[in-house]
Amino acid sequence: KAGVTQTPRYLIKTRGQQVTLSCSPISGHRSVSWYQQTPGQGLQFLFEYFSETQRNKGNFPGRFSGRQFSNSRSEMNVSTLELGDSALYLCASLIGTGQGRSEQFFGPGTRLTVL
Amino acid sequence: GNSVTQMEGPVTLSEEAFLTINCTYTATGYPSLFWYVQYPGEGLQLLLKATKADDKGSNKGFEATYRKETTSFHLEKGSVQVSDSAVYFCALSSGNTGKLIFGQGTTLQVKP
Predict the structure, then answer these.
(1) Is A85 on the interface with B (CB under 8 A)?
(2) Which of A4, B55, B66, B97 lies 20 to 30 Å (CA to CA) from residue A115?
(3) What are the chain A neighbours of B46 within 8 Å (beta carbons)?
(4) Residue A95 contacts B, CB cutoff 8 Å
(5) Considering only CA atoms, which of B69, B76, B82, B73 is closest in space to residue B112?
C-alpha cells in the first residue's frame, strides 16, 4: 500500500507571495489533516478535511486555507506569506470514520522557507 | 483545554541503556494516546498507541501504558540502539477527531 505523498518536498518563496501544497492520502482513506511544525511552536493542527468538507479547524489566521477533492487528495494554501510561515508542513492520512478516525499516518512533509 | 507535556530533552544514552521518556496529559473524556517518532528530514511515524485506560501499546521493543489515574503515557525501552536516535512525540486525540495535540518532543541521542 502506497504511503502518504506530499508535493513539493521543498519550497522557497518571498514575503507576500502565496503557496499551494499538495497531499495524496493512503488509498481508501477519506480524511486528511494538516499540521505546521516549527522549532518555536512545535506541531500545531491546521485543519482536517473529510469527504471534501472541512471538519475541524485549528487556531490559524484566514490566510491559511485548504480543500479536498473527490479523490481525497487535499491542498492547502497560504496567502500573503510572512517570514513566520517558514515551517515544515505535514499532512496526515486518516481512515476518517469510527475508532480509526484518530489514528493518523504522516507524509514526509513540505519544507517551506519564506525569505 | 487538552494538552500534552513531555520531559525536556535532549536525552543522551549509551547503547543498550534503559530508556524512559515521560509524558503526561490533560484532557476531558477518554482520549486516545500515541507516541510518534521523527527521524531527521522525515515526517512522523506512528510508534505505538493506546485507546483506553490500562491498555499497553508496544512496537519494536518500545512500550507505553495508558495510566488514567496518573494521566500518563510514559515511553520505555529496555535496551536502546544507535538507530533509535530521533525525536519522540507524545500525542493525544480526544473525541475521535482528526486533531492530534502533541507534546513538544524529546530528542533522544544514543551513543555507541
Answers:
(1) no
(2) A4
(3) 103-106
(4) no
(5) B82
